[in-house]
Amino acid sequence: MSSWSDGTRVVRGGDGPVVPGAPLRPSPVFAAPYHLGEDPYAADFYARPGHPTLRVFEEAVGDLDGGDCLAFATGMAAISAAVFAVVGAGDRIVIPSDGYYQTRALSTGELARFGVQVDQVPTLEIAEVAARGDLEGAAFVLLETPSNPELDVCDIAAVAAATQAAGAVLAVDNTTATPLGQRPLELGADITLGADTKALTGHSDLLMGHVSTARTERGRELQTRLKAWRDRTGNGPGAFDAWLAHRSMSTLDLRLTRQATTAAAVAELLAAHPAATGVRWPGRPGDPSHELASRQMLRMNGVVSATLADEAAVHALVRHSELWLAATSFGGVHSTVDRRAQWGGDAVPDGFVRFSCGIEDTADLVADLTAALDALR
Fold first, then answer.
1. Per residue in 106-118, pLDDT tens?
2. How far is CA 257 from CA 60, 200, 260, 301, 336, in A?
3. N or C: the chain end with fewer CB closer than 10 Å?
4. 282: preceding bond cis by omega (within 30 degrees)
């Protein structure tokens, strides 16, 4: 499958051999226990360690990532697994200070209880820290690129070279880019992970996450540890969610294409409008991360950030808009506005907004947003 283009891979990933009379996409297998043979481990025996529907989804996602995939019940379950499968008591880890706030909360609120030293470094500075050799002694390094919510981009290959030299494990949160937009394993990362609740499944109707490991000796060792963590903690998805996720990812290529087209138009609109400042989208020429993103990323996504005057301005924008909905999360088919300061985890101004471009008509979205911004004057 890896030799085919994106549109083919997202549709055909996980497909088995053609069998006359069989459905094009297998139905979910709903079972907890299974019939046992003389060797209970020779086939499925219980759904917590794995089941047929889950394996189909994992095969499809693993093909996109270029690695071996394990699916988890949520994105945070995937991040937790990546951390706890690697990090031991007293270890040192490096995480982004400007990434997803719950990842920071996990590190400072849970890992700190085990004496883990958590160093928080801004996304734009992690590559500099790596270049100085300051990753020596670290057991685990996490990147989130583009970062959420400020959309900074970090040089994965440069950090990967430094972590390999230091003996650390490098994990990349690829949620914002998706496996079609960026392939961290090809750039030297040991682990790539994603909150598949977002763009990968893209319909705002399920929770899901995954971790993929490189197809190397080290990657296989990490895969074994991750699988053991999932089995023991029970963080695997059920059959219906796995089936729904596999079905939903079939349109990822089409959705990303429309979302990126809209994001480009929205970024230009915001950059030219007096009601917005600090517009960020890595695909826009002039963006601080544009040059690196153009080299590192395979395609852009549909998330744009900007700052309005204050909280009241954001509320007024939503009131005057017919198409842009107030909601958290991103990457779905609906276009949404999320004022990040309301959640308390990000060091951003009160008027900082994450725009998630959906798959509605681009011209309609731009016209509606223009009218809503004009109403703020």
1. 999 999 899 999 9
2. 20, 13, 5, 8, 17
3. C
4. no
Amino acid at 110: E
**Under a CB-based contact definition with an 8 Å cutoff, are residues 305 and 150 in contact?**
yes
Which amino acid belongs to residue 356? S
Helix (H) or strand (E) holding 307: strand 303-307
Q: Output DSSP code: residue 43.
A: S
Question: Locate tokens 């920071």: which residue?
Answer: 104
CA distances from 270 to 204, 234, 279, 300, 347 (A): 25, 44, 7, 18, 21
pTM comes to 0.97
Classify residue 215 by its DSSP letter: S
SS3 152: coil
CB 9 within 8 A of CB 179: no
| Residue 342: both structure tokens together | 């309301």
User: Could you report the per-residue pLDDT of 185-209, keeping only the tens digit for each?
Assistant: 999 999 999 999 999 999 999 999 9
- Strands 92-96 and 140-144 turn out to be parallel
Helix and strand numbers (H, E) in the chain are 13, 12
Strand-by-strand arrangement of the 336-339 sheet: 277-280, 303-307, 352-356, 336-339, 325-326
The radius of gyration of the chain from alpha carbons, rounded to an integer in Å, stands at: 21
Q: Which pair of structure tokens corresponds to residue 94? A: 């490096």
Residue with tokens 């400042």: 277
Q: How many CB atoms lie within 10 A of CB 23?
A: 7
Q: How far apart are CA 151 and CA 278, in angstroms?
A: 11
In tens, the pLDDT along 147-200 reads: 999 999 999 999 999 999 999 999 999 999 999 999 999 999 999 999 999 999
* Share of residues in the chain with pLDDT > 70 (%): 99
Nearest to 280 by CA among 374, 371, 195, 348: 348
Nearest CA to 265 out of 279, 246, 250, 251 is that of 279
Which residue from 238, 257, 81, 92 is spatially nearest to 173, judged by alpha carbons?
Answer: 81
